[in-house]
Amino acid sequence: MRKAGELIQWTNKGGYGFVRDDAGRDYYVHISKVTPGARPRIGDMVSFETGTGRKGRPSAINVIITATSPTPSPTLRDVRQGSGNVSRFKIGLRTAAATVLTLLILWAIAGDRAPAWLGLLYAAMGAGSALLYRFDKLYALTGKYRVSETNLHVVDLCFGIIGGLAAQEVYRHKTVKPRFVATTWAIALAHTLGLAALAFGGLGGLLPGA
To answer: Any idea what DSSP says for residue 111?
Structure first.
């Protein structure tokens, strides 16, 4: 049975994107599954069938563009406004995780179990991570060269995870691809456990200046 939906993300360079159906579910779509000769744009209305991609994710196949986008590609302001179809609970988990990490850092510093420079390190790397996500989202919207997922994860792992989680929520970016999402949460969990141990004395004395 065919479904109707909207192309909510598209990368010209990679030839792929995501389609959101009327129920708010997102499907990966590759240019090879779109009607030959068509030039997909964000905002296009499409008709498609569903299938399973090689990585097991839901995919759109036999995609036909039924109506082209009447408006220019969205800007980051549009992205930040979000969509009514996006689950507030799913997105809100990232805010909650970033908040918990921040509180653990403050608790550890206030209890003299961590030096102040650790908080500054998280703040600086978090700002850097947020900027990378911002640039990557802009590049995705305009079809330009993307920031590699490996680089995003490396910066998040190197104390940028709070900014990374915040940016994912603000820009509604990198919240669909299962492998990327799983790696992000693994990094967040590792930092949470480490900071919790530090905040409650489990790593006391291991950091210089603590």
So the answer is: T
SS3 161: helix
> DSSP labels for 44-108?
-EEEEEEEE-TTS-EEEEEEEEEE--SSPPP-HHHHHH--TTS-HHHHHHHHHHHHHHHHHHHHH
Q: Which domains does the chain have, with CATH numbers?
A: 3-67 (2.40.50.140), 80-199 (no CATH)
Say if residues 133 and 167 touch (Cβ distance below 8 Å): yes
At 67-106, the pLDDT tens digits run 886 655 555 555 554 444 444 445 589 999 999 999 999 9
**pLDDT tens digit sequence for 184-204:** 999 999 999 999 999 988 665
Distance of CA 71 to the CA centre of its chain: 24
Residues paired with 27 in a beta bridge: 19
Amino acid at position 189, single letter = L
> What does pTM read for this prediction?
0.59
Structure tokens at 15: 């030839």
The closest of 39, 41, 62, 42 to 50, measured between CA atoms, is: 62
Sign of the alpha-carbon dihedral angle for 190, 195, 201, 206: positive
CA torsion 123→124→125→128, rounded to 10°? Answer: 120
In whole angstroms, what separates CA 143 from the centre of its chain?
17
Neighbours of 98 (CB within 10 A): 21
